[in-house]
Amino acid sequence: MSSTSGLPTRGSFESDLIEAARIQAQHGLGIGPGGTAGGAIPGYRLLKEIHRGGQGVVYLAVQEATRRKVAIKVLREGPFAGENDRSRFEREVQVLAALRHPHIVTVHDSGSCAGCFYFVMDYVAGLPLDRHVELHGLTMEQRLDLMATICEAVNAAHLRGVIHRDLKPGNIRIDPQGVPHVLDFGLAKLSGTDDMHSSRGIEMTQTGQFIGSLPWASPEQARGLSHAIDVRTDVYSLGVMLYQMLVDRFPYDVEGPLKDVLERISSVAPTSPRSLSRLVHPEAEAIALKALSKRPEDRYQNAGELGRDIRRFLAGLPIEAKRDSTMYLIRKAMHRYWIQSLIAGGLFLLVLAFSVTITLMFKVQSELLEQAAEDRQAWLIERERLIERAAEAERRLGVPPTDASNEGGNESSKP
User: How far apart are CA 145 and CA 148, in angstroms?
Assistant: First the structure.
């Protein structure tokens, strides 16, 4: 009897049941009828753990009704979680439920079961941003195009008043089609509102801990200035990621004692990307360094501006990061319209050559006329001098003055 291809083997089915049982036992929950996790999270069967963070654990699951794979984030500690943890967890659900964008993960369901808080979202297969770039060997243009798409997704959140505050390659997942998805809004903040955890955030920084991901944190986050955090904070984190895309390293050293790292983030200027790799285009460097400005007012004012400048660079258009330079704008226009510039330059040279030729011809003609006038004047002066000398000679010889008309008349009167 031949086995049917494509069907799970008994061993793999039992392994799934064992893994599901382990997951449920870990949360103190029972397994539902038929060996599924229906009794734990109704309507879903947990398959395996795919991520564990400081706030929660994310599992791959199957929605029983549709057989669709989903991701379920479960709050760690379950019923023993603190009030702040639950509030932050609920806020992430509210934020994601309000965002609808093809590059931001979507929430489909949420609730609690046996004291465990959870929410159900899209399952995005694939790799984190940095691993995707490394394994697929993306070109610089492909990396920048990917970053522009990520900036556009973050800007969609900004337009809804949502500040991510924890942007890093691990929170950007690239699916098998190469499409990026922004994940993990657990530390998100609504702009224009007081952050209920702001004072706690400063305290934790002062006591040697840090809320968020330190290597990608902004100077205002490093200084614990919660009131200064806005969408430009996300721009800085995107700038760190862009810098990594260009040279595969951080703008400054992010290892060592927390105090030293915070000081470097706050005050140390990023190393010039072109000093690390001559393959980095000067304009790409300018974009990254503008996003990494220590003062928020010197950065791009939102993720959309950063994304648009990357798109302009890829299209060969002038970028905002260098728009203050007139010569730069001229060079960019000539580079973009090089055929028209070549034709215009050729016409300009022809007109210039024609103008120079005509000018020289007029100059030569004018010099020749002046010389002729001078020669004629000299001839007239010499003629008058000779006439005077002839008259003086005749006077001395006693010869009566002759007149050209009389001479002519005398000659005509002769036989």
Answer: 5
